[in-house]
């Protein structure tokens, strides 16, 4: 009986794994096949990988797009982590009467879909372009700036700060550490797992961000990876092998970062539930 | 402590400068902005089709204007719509191109919503040089805005080998209506086991083709009044569609990828679609000689039904920003008046235009061995002149979505009149 239960659990788990891994499998296999074979649903690796690589490199500048995406994602992650953790820390550690009201208003901003903010935001950047073109429309900075603070990340840091042992701060104060010092020398090192989880979330959403970069970036030189992939599929007769190859390349960085930080990620997420 | 803060601060500064600098260098090159750019910026979507056409046009134009510079920016069609909508509704001209390619079905909503953002080109092109349906699609109240690019003139692509097996030739497909074609389809399926055609239930292209061939559209001539309940061609098209489904002659695909697969693997016997589909058919070289193109069947029991219709097709529009004069000059001297250029378009990439002098000068008299020596481009241009003129109006895709649901009700056994009546009501409430 026990055995039967075990076996059925494993069958379900194996089934679920196959279902979740299949898209990756298909993506990788398809990147080695001709477009016609991809549409035909061929599931065996082909011999077209080199041709696909050649076609990809000759049609688009994927190196530039990777670089753009990397600059945007890394800058966003560093800045967002710093700003959001300072805010989350402040909300939890310091006392103020208005604190909860401000925090609730902040949370409400999570309810506004980005599509509703897009036109006013674009208008703002249009004005900024006239004053300071280096952070205006069609610059990488214009992609970074609106995504630095997100209500979600502040909320995430505040929730995790709840289980931060505040006695550490008091001990620090007694030893004469400044308020900023408390944050940088005590809080950050203690909250490493939270930072790792937040870094993964921010990096991934920035790496995959589509709508805002699409609207605000104009020149091919500034194109990010998702925009590049979208334009590869725009043709009336798209080359699916090449598209799949581009998707493999686009997926690698996030996959690597996830594997690298996975341990911390799970710990960080668990923390936010506790 | 201070050291660490300093380190962090400098790290952030470096990253920020890195992020800004690549934008900065763009400004220096002057390519980031349609307003200030050297040369003309264009948004278009298919590197093998309309972007290639632009390159050919650039070459032709450069012969006379050696200093001319064209910057083509490639974006998916939906992305162009999104970008254009955001830019125009925010009232910011920064980053807009000088020229944008817009599909004929969609353009009226842009022209009506942002009338001052587009540059009127009336008088710059000779209207009588283009097929009338195309001018109707690119103009508002006799004001011309678009320079026509390609025609979406439709034909019925058929597998001659399957037809032959069932005892038919392409002669049997001339001047027939859909009921007769369905009978032929039943026979073909009986003999070869292949379905007659394939369609995506969520893509109403085929219905649009059918109703335009009957001289009708979702809206009346004003482009706004919803025309569903009393629309005879639409009713006839719904009946044809149901008949195709009920007789099990319609294979179903769910995206472009599967459509190509169905055609290239030979699992269906025909496909009624726009002439721009030709390269996709020819992608499967092994089927060379097995295809032909015939006029689409007409709608049964509809007065004035024709064998000509349109699917897709797009035109160039000039935005009302600095550089518009140069943009207009580029478009009118190539797409607007150059017959030899149209010949290059068809020989190099199979794009069929709507420029009548090019048709008269024999630009399209090219026999194609893939289609058994048929002069398909010539046929398409002939048919394109017969396409009934309709006003595509402002809401084509919105009404599409409503009718797609209505079709499901009808296929599930609903009464046609009632189904269309409720679609009409829904469309009226949804669209003001």
TrEMBL record, chain A:
The chain crosses the membrane at residues 7-29, 65-89, 101-122, 134-157, 194-212, 240-261. Belongs to the binding-protein-dependent transport system permease family. Coiled coil: none annotated. GO terms for cellular component: plasma membrane. The keyword tRNA-binding does not apply. GO terms for biological process: transmembrane transport. It is found in: Cell membrane. Its main location: membrane. Residues 66-261 form the ABC transmembrane type-1 domain. This is Lactose ABC transporter permease. It holds the Pfam family BPD_transp_1. CDD domains: TM_PBP2 (cd06261). Keywords: Cell membrane, Membrane, Transmembrane, Transmembrane helix, Transport. Gene3D superfamilies: MetI-like (1.10.3720.10). It comes from the Bacteria. It is a multi-pass membrane protein. InterPro entries: MetI-like, MetI-like_sf.
UniProtKB/TrEMBL annotation, chain B:
It holds the Pfam family SBP_bac_8. Gene3D superfamilies: Periplasmic binding protein-like II. It comes from the Bacteria. Keywords: Signal. PROSITE patterns: PROKAR_LIPOPROTEIN. Residues 1-18 form the signal peptide. PANTHER family: ARABINOSE-BINDING PROTEIN-RELATED (PTHR43649), SUGAR BINDING SECRETED PROTEIN (PTHR43649:SF32). This is ABC transporter substrate-binding protein.
